[in-house]
Amino acid sequence: MMIYTLNVRGVFPVNCYALINEQSQHGFLVDPGAQGEDILAVIHEKHWQIEKILLTHGHFDHTGAVNFLRQNLDIPILIHENGKDYLQNTTLNLSACCGEHILVDDASFVHDGDYIQLADGSLALKVLHTPGHTPDSVIYYNADGHYALVGDTIFKGAVGSTEYPGGNKTDLAHSLKKIFALPADTILYSGHSRPALLAQEQQRNQRSMSIN
């Protein structure tokens, strides 16, 4: 299984990820925030068969290319159940304050503890609800591959902001504890930074935030 990083930019730069089984070329797309035409061109060029689009949360910089890609690929969109209001409210998803109007319809909802699998069973991701940055924030964790797609909950050298609508510092602290309970060699793939080793981020946050 390969993880490809597609660096895209709308109002902000964001990491869109493609998780691809290199034998079957089937996979998932995570957080396509912008440049839908460019993402689609890469998908066609590499002959990927994307089965689902997974969203770590409903902020517009992670959802901006969803409608375009769904129309062209005819695939489902998955987000945590708390994300419905974010997909349907331009104030909550922050697109209105940035001069955009991004809404997403007809998403399917996931819950804490769910598993999302490719059709052939070659990849399974566990959904872990990690509110704090937003109430709908989740990570997608793969135990066999020792990695997690963490959205904006944690970055290399930083943690997610709680200043936007729905943000909550107490929730974020609990979510970080949940992440830090994963194996120390887990690689964290975030929305806006380079990959990070969980053990290093745990040590940094224990020093700076006294999270034990």
Walkthrough of the structure:
The protein is of the alpha/beta class. It has one domain (2-209): Ribonuclease Z/Hydroxyacylglutathione hydrolase-like (Metallo-beta-lactamase, Chain A), CATH 3.60.15. It has six helices and 14 strands. It has helices at 36-46, 60-63, 66-73, 84-88, 169-180, 198-209, and strands spanning 2-9, 13-20, 26-30, 49-54, 77-80, 108-110, 115-117, 124-129, 138-142, 147-151, 154-155, 158-159, 187-190, 196-197. The strands form three sheets. A six-stranded mixed beta sheet has the order 1-2-3-4-5-6, covered by helices on one side. A six-stranded mixed beta sheet has the order 7-8-9-10-13-14. A hairpin with a 6-residue loop joins strand 7 (115-117) and strand 8 (124-129). The longest helix has 12 residues, at 169-180. The chain is globular, with a radius of gyration of 16 Å. The mean pLDDT is 95.
Question: What's the CATH architecture name?
Answer: 4-Layer Sandwich
Strand composition percent: 25-35%
CATH class (first level) name: Alpha Beta
Main beta-sheet strand count, sense and barrel state: 6 strands, mixed
- Average pLDDT level: 95
Name its key features:
212 residues, alpha/beta, Metallo-beta-lactamase, Chain A, 6-stranded mixed β-sheet, 6 helices, 14 strands, 25% helix
Concise structural overview:
The protein has 212 residues and is an alpha/beta fold. Helix content is 25%, strand content 30%.
Topology of this protein?
Layout: E1 2-9, E2 13-20, E3 26-30, H1 36-46, E4 49-54, H2 60-63, H3 66-73, E5 77-80, H4 84-88, E6 108-110, E7 115-117, E8 124-129, E9 138-142, E10 147-151, E11 154-155, E12 158-159, H5 169-180, E13 187-190, E14 196-197, H6 198-209
Parallel strand pairs: 3-4, 4-5, 5-6, 10-13
Antiparallel strand pairs: 1-2, 2-3, 7-8, 8-9, 9-10, 11-12, 13-14
Helix pairs in contact: 1-3
